[in-house]
Amino acid sequence: MVKKVKPLVAVVMGSEKDAEVMAEATRILDQFRIPHEVLVISAHRTPERCRSFARGAIRRGIQVIIAGAGKAAHLAGVIASHTTLPVVGVPLDAGLSGLDALLSTVQMPRGVPVGAMSVGRSGVANAALYAAAILALHDKRLARNLAGFRRAQGARVVRRPRPPKSGK
Ligand code: RP5
After folding, report:
1. 9-159, what's its fold?
2. What is the pLDDT of residues 62-71, one digit of tens each?
């Protein structure tokens, strides 16, 4: 029998429409071989699902929650209100270039923190890398892999810009 690996990270999005951009997190978590789950939970359309997910997350062994949402992005904040796990919020661009979601995510009132990433795809990627950094505090293999990722990323940066292609 194949033993099911318990997820350490939950990747949550407010709408199925967010799935394409949120897949960036899955790609990175897969790259670092971090077990994760991916769920659609709407804080306003499925409030009970939101509550039971957040309340049960610690018991299920989840260590970090990534929550991406657009517009009045209250998903990360509502999840954070039900758990003491680190919640990483990603504002998604579903209108107003994501400024609405950015302010909703970053402006959490004192007492219930949400770690806020940048808007959109790069924020999603950084959320996954941030989750990896949290888990790496207690996982030496993951810490080595993260350091290697940073080295490889730096090695790809050219020292001088290549001459621009001449256009007509
Ligand atoms: C948010 O509103 C979702 O995260 C999504 O980005 C946006 C639009 O979703 P729908 O209302 O169109 O499903 O809740």
Report:
1. Rossmann fold (3.40.50)
2. 999 999 999 9
